[in-house]
Write a structure and sequence with these properties.
This protein has 13 helices and two strands, in the order αααααααααββαααα. It has 298 residues and is an all-alpha fold. It folds into two domains: 87 residues, Cytochrome c-like domain (Cytochrome Bc1 Complex, Chain D, domain 2), CATH 1.10.760.10; 124 residues, Cytochrome c-like domain (Cytochrome Bc1 Complex, Chain D, domain 2).
């Protein structure tokens, strides 16, 4: 009886020790894989997001942080000390106009590699709220990431699913084009064949960070990507799996494609689908202009 109590106490202490100090190195791989398509558990320590914090996460978080360093664009901490309120509201509301005319905006464009911030379709109230948020979050904690699980917590199964989603061997739930239609990822022994419409994503994890990548996938602000996924959004589980795959690719531990011919075919078909979709959208966009002109000629 005494031996049984000692064994029970030892197991209890071992469990408490693991809870306090984290899992052993092999624990993550030994854990059962989540059900296919299940969203990862969210970090519960964060305070609930305000509507403006959520707006920042959706519209701005893929390119900017407030106090966590540069991403695609500048870190916005204390930006109100560097620019006037009127300048900030004007730039947040219609960056395209200021990038074409304002000297400070053009200097920023040069500094950040010519990447233009797109117009986000914000209302005056949303614009004012975002500038207020930048002032507040420069001096006090804010929840700009929302419900977020780091890619470092991913299992090998998550990484494999992310690779399948990237290459298109597993279709996206909403029917969107696979990533390799426009992008490529380079592995230890070569590259996952892909398209050239977008950037090489091998080290995108290092360029914009885990939270930036999460925002870019969930709410893409890049003009081309936004058009492609506007009506075909990724679900949270797909976003997490893709982040897991790109995290591994950034470490240089992602093998090249085993069937380059098949994946190259996927890439070609996907790119063709993207271009056809954009062409159709462009044709619809011009109908209202072209029709009156045609009638006028007749």
């Amino acid at each position: 009886m005494q031996g049984r109590r000692t064994a029970t106490l030892s197991l209890l202490l071992l469990g408490l020790g693991r809870a306090a100090w984290g899992q052993s190195p092999g624990a993550a791989e030994a854990a059962p894989a989540p059900a296919p398509g299940a969203a990862p558990a969210a970090r519960s320590a964060e305070a609930p997001q305000s509507p403006t914090e959520d707006l920042f996460a959706r519209k701005c978080g893929s390119c900017h942080t407030v106090g966590k360093g540069k991403r695609v664009g500048p870190d916005l901490k204390d930006v109100h000390k560097r620019r006037s309120r009127a300048w900030l509201e004007g730039f947040v509301r219609t960056p395209s106009g200021m990038l074409d005319s304002d000297p400070d905006a053009r200097n920023l464009l040069t500094e950040f590699g010519g990447v233009r911030m797109p117009d986000l379709g914000l209302t005056p109230e949303e614009t004012k709220g975002l500038v207020d948020l930048l002032v507040r979050c420069s001096t006090e904690p804010c929840n700009l990431a929302g419900r977020f699980t780091p890619a470092t917590a991913a299992t090998p199964q998550d990484v494999a699913r992310g690779r399948a989603l990237f290459t298109g061997t597993q279709p996206l739930k909403s029917g969107g084009a696979p990533c390799l239609s426009c992008h490529v990822v380079r592995g230890q022994t070569g590259a996952v064949p892909g398209g050239l419409l977008g950037k090489d994503l091998t080290h995108v994890f290092a360029r914009i960070g885990d939270e930036g990548l999460d925002a870019a996938l969930a709410n893409p602000a890049y003009p081309l990507m936004n058009r492609v996924f506007k009506d075909h959004p990724l679900d949270p589980a797909e976003v997490f799996a893709l982040r897991a795959f790109l995290y591994r690719a950034n470490l240089g531990s992602e093998p090249a494609a085993e069937d380059a011919l098949s994946l190259g075919l996927f890439a070609g078909l996907g790119a063709a689908g993207v271009l056809l979709g954009l062409n159709a959208a462009w044709a619809r966009r011009l109908t209202g202009v072209r029709k009156p002109l045609t009638e006028r000629k007749g």
